[in-house]
Amino acid sequence: MTENSSCSIRTVHFEPDNIDIIVQNGANLMEAAVAAGVHINASCGGAGVCGTCNVIINNGMVESVRTDKISEKDYEKGVRQACKSNILSDLNVEIPAASRLEKAILSREEMLSTSTIAVGWKYDPPVKKIYIELSPPTPQDNSSDLSRLLKELTRQMCIESISIEPNTMKKLADTLRAGNWKVTVTTLLDLNSGIRLIKIEPGDTRARHYSLAFDIGTTAVRGQLLDLNRAKVLSQNIDYNRQISYGEDVISRISQSQKTGGLERLQKAIVSTLNDLIKKLVDEAGINTNDICHMVVAANTVMVQLLLSLNPKYLRLSPYVPTANVFPPVVARSLGIEISDHVQLNTIPCVASYVGGDIVSGILGTGIFQREALTLYIDIGTNGEIVLGNKDWMISAACSAGPTFEGGGIKYGMIATSGAIEGFDIDPENYEPIITTVDNAKPKGICGSGLINTAAILLKNGVIDQKGKYNNLPSRRIRKGYNGYEYILAYAAETQIDKDIVLSEIDIDNLIRSKAAMYAGYYTLIQSTGKSFSDIQQVVIAGTFGSKINIENAIIIGLLPDLPRNKFIFIGNGSLLGARLTSFSSELLYQGQIVAGMMTNLELSENKEFMDNYLAALFLPHTNADEFPSIKTGGI
Amino acid sequence: MTENSSCSIRTVHFEPDNIDIIVQNGANLMEAAVAAGVHINASCGGAGVCGTCNVIINNGMVESVRTDKISEKDYEKGVRQACKSNILSDLNVEIPAASRLEKAILSREEMLSTSTIAVGWKYDPPVKKIYIELSPPTPQDNSSDLSRLLKELTRQMCIESISIEPNTMKKLADTLRAGNWKVTVTTLLDLNSGIRLIKIEPGDTRARHYSLAFDIGTTAVRGQLLDLNRAKVLSQNIDYNRQISYGEDVISRISQSQKTGGLERLQKAIVSTLNDLIKKLVDEAGINTNDICHMVVAANTVMVQLLLSLNPKYLRLSPYVPTANVFPPVVARSLGIEISDHVQLNTIPCVASYVGGDIVSGILGTGIFQREALTLYIDIGTNGEIVLGNKDWMISAACSAGPTFEGGGIKYGMIATSGAIEGFDIDPENYEPIITTVDNAKPKGICGSGLINTAAILLKNGVIDQKGKYNNLPSRRIRKGYNGYEYILAYAAETQIDKDIVLSEIDIDNLIRSKAAMYAGYYTLIQSTGKSFSDIQQVVIAGTFGSKINIENAIIIGLLPDLPRNKFIFIGNGSLLGARLTSFSSELLYQGQIVAGMMTNLELSENKEFMDNYLAALFLPHTNADEFPSIKTGGI
């Protein structure tokens, strides 16, 4: 590990997390671990007195003093207190079980995804802040401000060249002097054109270094504000995609974009959604918008093209050609996003017209492209996307499930925000419901996961039949409404909306068609490769309501295949996961292009097998009962 | 020369011009020569019947048929008709004297500079147009529009990667289809970030491919519209730099820029100057502004920083630090320049606060950095700049000559536009003047070269003495005016301005101070290197009025050193020459950084020798007559 010996940067590899981080020479090892998202015990807060942060240096050199917290024997073996060690070379560091702080600072979503996250990526954000101290110019050394800065910057970064943005140039001379020749620069890695200097600030501003990750869905948009110093989510939020007023699915959005001014209207709608979310994220985290340095967006191909003002017309005309798979980064401000003008927006690459960056982002974030195991990756959403494969090959497909799982097409459907009915059970005696809602608020509607849970429980208890029709049961909850029979989930007086919240046969019918499309999608994909469900070693469920779905209920209604339950892994929003990790890792920014490039797309829209499989799946759980051996329906 | 055998591009080297050009395989050799600016006779216009375009293929392969215009013996020696030969490999082509079309299409300025132009540069513009025919997508091959385009483009250009501008992306899908998958793309070489695709047009638009070269002087701005297909100047024009209303020299411009809104006002002033010039250039050439693809600007450091909105404050504060030497290219439109938004503006690199891109451009264009000969390069202008050196070393200096040579500080001074008195002689009997003016228009004022000629002739004829004072002579032309004695160059009735055009002692005094600053500048520079005037093998005179200056007269007044006259070469506007050649040659774009980097700057502003030399030069021609042995003054 001598190749960097002339440099001032060091790579620290943490075991068993298998995470690398790049730091300055002399950096504190405890701080490096925190920055890398590696969790080490430190009950004394780094004072060196608790002795709980012991690590083993397997390779490399640290500067450290032995205290009575480490025996002489251990010290010889390489045990050191992380909080008392400064990094002097590239390191290989092992964190023994006793020092591991399991899951302590992981959010719920992060907990779910730890086991399936991409491995081996370095914590090495594409956008970095670097603090620089320069010697002021003298009559003997009056080289230009830019030469002076770049000389030191290229030395510190161990790179040959770096380019500077015109806007940064304008601030260069005054900022260097305002900071008394001590400044913080922000650099951006552009995969095509190398490193660019995008911002300069007086003094040391490294502590304020944030980015944004977004998943732009057809129905909902989810965002996270990230602390780039700690690889941590500071705040997250969700909102409807305001393009909804121009149509519920991607096809209607494309139609709308062809009207006069349509593309512009749709572009403005998504940008205003993003702008409001950014405000909320910033407010919640209590940071300054100007300290945001980067944005990563994962979205399906249509959403990306609309965001970037790229005419999506040809996405829906055979042979379904997107403008690009790999979209060049753009200045976020140029799209209308209300953020500093140095912020670059990267989009995760797409595969085809209907297999977008959201799915690539999920594959990227979960590391499926790095593993042996044959994995079925399912992203349940308005545009359902499926990938089958492993590190050697991947095949993808898209099927239009419709907006049902986001609450669309359902009379009282809504996204999973406060007041959405999520959990559902029934009193088998009188068929009275037991509901739980998001935030335990008064009910306002029903979200996708609530819908699946409700339909499954109603089916399991014989309230509806396998066609999704209400049986004739003695319950005040079941009544005939405008849309055929319906079940009253909550009476008007109990709700936020002063209306009975009901689930009608029309709603259930929409659900059946959506789940049939999803099931037919993966069935057809597996068929096409000559495999069967039993070959699948792992099913990764991503998607907007992934982590809230009840696996048993999803199998009961035939949305998921009837496989051993331990094969299912829920990773929550895979699209957002990949976007977030890309903001943390230059390596993943690069791998995104590789992953998109290795996927073969199977076009389902004109596929006969898919249509047959779809028709066979229009039943609860399926017309072929052998497909769901573990499910008994039609009553308890 | 087999390294490019798998590529479709070929390099053709022309002797004795020593010029390379890059062309498509199969291109016609005559057309390649025209594009390279190599002039071959072809009296039949390429029909192959005149036999005047014979060339010798010294190396490489062409496809050609022998006609009776070439003997069998000559054919075996490699003689071919250029108009009948297609290029099949890299070539080394010799143009025999009989086939050379000397100076035929060279403008006056180009004629002057042919002998001293940079050698060995390839005609290979940084901005290229490339015509591409793609196969349309099919269901079997529905890769994205961008992948399809870049695959073919990188193949044709023999490069690995290319990035695309967001604005080009927006037009990509529709343009490919509008052109029925036949399009012309414009690519830009960015030295820092590689090749970028900046424009796409349907069909074959290669014939319309233009660029702009500008020399932005403190007083005057000169522009040329260039045909990038023929390496030819289509139109040229000149105007005052509108910043003049904010001060005549760079110091007063810097002061002005420190006032509230000052920098913005100055930036707008130069941009409006450029915009008006662009309109004139485009109108004269009869082309469409949208077909301009590139701009190259050479200017002194202050002018560059004002153009790019870079605070010039620190340029005049010790230790005189510019914001940058190498300025990154910017989108011309972002500066307010009224031109298509894909046009990139490159500035020629600078050396120091007062040795700018104008001088680097001149050194670049004249190829002084490539030669053995010790050369003194003098750019006479408001900010006089001097370089001494050769291919091994270069030292530069700047001296503030003031605006005299551009007509500033002279009561009836003007730049060399229509009506400016340029030529001057005198009837020794009665001291009546013989004047010539630019465009032979009625006199309007006197330009820099006219001023030198007039002062020299007046001195030579004893009308003024060596201090620049009028002798008491019997002539109606000499009279006492408000500013001491003056000589009437033209009576009011003969002029365009209805005023007597006179040259006063104050005017002559200004001229003496300006020429003294220049002379002291090169004297000090030569002294500092331990050399003397006799070591100088070549004196290259650049500058705004370079090609119009009368060498003898300039020596008579002591503006130029008294060296053998054959050592002087006038290259006209060296700054514009370098900018133009840079627009024709990627190699020179790159070399500009090298040349700027190899110059050592000598600061004259606080140099005692310079002050002494200046005071000694405040005399016509000099206080030390030994410096000017060939000059006899004080009467015929």
What would you say this structure looks like, in words?
Two copies of one chain form a homodimer. By secondary structure, chain A is α/β, with parallel strands linked by helices. Chain A contains 15 helices and 30 strands. Chain A has a six-stranded mixed beta sheet with strand order 5-3-7-1-2-8. In chain A, strands 15-14-13-16-18-17 form a six-stranded mixed beta sheet, sandwiched between helices. A six-stranded mixed beta sheet of chain A has the order 29-28-19-20-21-30. In chain A, strand 28, helix 12 and strand 29 form a beta-alpha-beta unit. In chain A, helix 6 packs across helix 7, helix 9 packs across helix 13 and helix 11 crosses helix 15. The longest helix of chain A has 24 residues. At the A-B interface, helix 4, strand 10, helix 5 and strand 17 of A face helix 4, strand 10, helix 5 and strand 17 of B.
Helix/strand layout:
The structure is a homodimer.
Chain A: E1 9-15, E2 19-24, H1 29-35, E3 54-59, E4 62-63, H2 72-77, E5 79-81, E6 86-87, E7 91-94, H3 108-113, E8 122-123, E9 127-133, H4 145-157, E10 163-164, H5 166-178, E11 182-190, E12 194-202, E13 210-216, E14 220-227, E15 232-240, H6 250-257, H7 262-285, E16 292-299, H8 301-307, E17 330-331, E18 344-347, H9 357-366, E19 375-380, E20 383-389, E21 394-400, E22 420-426, E23 433-437, E24 445-446, H10 448-460, E25 478-481, E26 484-490, E27 501-504, H11 505-528, E28 538-543, H12 551-556, E29 568-572, H13 574-584, H14 586-598, E30 599-602, H15 608-616
Parallel strand pairs in A: 1-7, 2-8, 10-12, 13-16, 16-18, 19-28, 21-30, 22-24, 28-29
Antiparallel strand pairs in A: 1-2, 3-5, 3-7, 4-6, 9-11, 11-12, 13-14, 14-15, 17-18, 19-20, 20-21, 22-23, 25-26, 26-27
Helix pairs in contact in A: 6-7, 9-13, 9-14, 11-15, 13-14
